[in-house]
Amino acid sequence: MLHDQVGQLLDTPENAASAADIADWLGRCEVRWQETDNPEGTKDALVVALKPRFNRQVPKPRHVGGGE
User: Fold this and answer.
1) Count of other CB atoms within 10 angstroms of residue 20
2) Three-state SS for 37?
3) Phi, psi of 26, deg, nearest 5
4) Is 16 within a domain?
5) Residues 8-57: pLDDT tens digits?
6) 49 in a domain, yes or no?
7) In terms of residue numbers, what domain contains 28?
8) Residue 51: inside a domain, yes or no?
9) For residue 48, what are the contacts with CB-CB under 8 A and spacing of at least 6?
10) Rounded distance between C-alpha atoms, residue 27 and residue 21, angstroms
11) Count of structural domains within the chain
12) Which residue, 17, 21, 42, 44, could crosslink 59 as a Cys pair with Cβ 3.0–4.6 Å?
């Protein structure tokens, strides 16, 4: 899926990105992670704050306080 998304980013009307173009682009990216006891909550917070380009899942809103 990521390969397809990067390909769409790199494609031009005249030229489709090659596998080498995509691999080169991905090779220049930086990936980080952190250990956490709450991976879902951490991911949700990062997605909301940073709006990553290739993330297609939006966290569900959380209701605070209940009672509604």
Assistant:
1) 8
2) coil
3) -65, -35
4) yes
5) 999 999 999 999 999 999 999 988 888 999 998 998 988 889 888 888 77
6) no
7) 2-36
8) no
9) 59
10) 10
11) 1
12) 44
